[in-house]
């Protein structure tokens, strides 16, 4: 026991150890993303920033808890975390209310549809339907996309408080390609145009050749809660054609979600 711990109660010491353990587990979980779904121990150490022995010991404990799996020597997120995540209200309530309208929209447009919520300065993809036209360059369920240059993000920000908009835009707007809008003024012009037509547009700002149209979903309080979108090749996803279908689906989803709770 160190001198600083001599006057510390066992409960306080246990709480400190527990917090440290949770922080280590969080660092390991944070090493995984859509581009790094499976990691060797060396890769996990490099990405989580913990010492190798600490990473190995903590990861083994997480495997026993079901938080991680380790098939063929590669670490990946365990099924237990997937089971727990499915209980989160944003997945359970929002997804169940909106999913039928996502399916209808996919049937009508025959292209990828997504459901997203604002998470800090990013959009968290809550649900996605791709059908027979997979688009691997898009984020998977649980992945994130920047709010400032995505139609999902703009559909939500257009109906958000000024403080929320400023926080997102002040977080940084790096260019993803030459067509990405990276000035605050340009993005705000896009947001201002959304309420008049009902949907937001992103024209190849994330991936060249891919465009997206999104509309907001409102919750029980009348505040914007999420957005749904159609995404696909620019030649197929034209705002004048996809916009009305997206708006209709979002309006129906808003009614369903608003009356569910």
TrEMBL record:
Every HTH iclR-type domain range: 19-79
Pfam family, one: HTH_IclR
Domain of life from the UniProt record: Bacteria
UniProt keyword list: DNA-binding, Transcription, Transcription regulation
Originating species: Streptomyces prunicolor
Protein's UniProt name: IclR family transcriptional regulator
Residues of the IclR-ED domain: 80-261
């Amino acid at each position: 026991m160190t001198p600083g711990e001599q006057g510390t109660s066992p409960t306080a010491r246990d709480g400190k150890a527990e917090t440290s353990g949770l922080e280590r587990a969080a660092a390991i979980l944070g090493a995984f993303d859509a581009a790094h779904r499976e990691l060797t121990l060396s890769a996990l150490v490099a990405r989580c920033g913990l010492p190798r022995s600490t990473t190995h010991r903590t990861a083994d404990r997480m495997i026993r808890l079901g938080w991680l799996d380790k098939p063929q020597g590669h670490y990946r997120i365990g099924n237990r975390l997937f089971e727990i995540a499915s209980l989160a209200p944003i997945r359970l309530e929002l997804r169940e209310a909106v999913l039928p309208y996502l399916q209808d929209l996919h049937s009508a447009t025959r292209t990828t549809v997504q459901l997203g919520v604002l998470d800090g300065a990013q959009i968290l993809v809550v649900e996605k339907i791709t059908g027979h036209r997979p688009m691997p360059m898009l984020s998977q369920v649980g992945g994130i996309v920047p709010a400032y240059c995505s139609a999902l993000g703009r559909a939500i920000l257009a109906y958000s408080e000024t403080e929320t908009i400023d926080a997102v835009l002040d977080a940084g707007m790096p260019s993803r390609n030459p067509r990405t809008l990276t000035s605050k003024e340009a993005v705000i012009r896009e947001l201002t145009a959304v309420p008049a037509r009902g949907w937001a547009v992103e024209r190849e700002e994330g991936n060249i050749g891919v465009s997206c149209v999104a509309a907001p979903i409102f919750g029980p309080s009348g505040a914007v809660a999420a957005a749904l979108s159609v995404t696909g090749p620019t030649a197929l996803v034209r705002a004048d054609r996809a916009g009305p279908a997206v708006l209709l689906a979002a309006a129906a989803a808003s009614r369903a979600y608003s009356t569910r709770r």
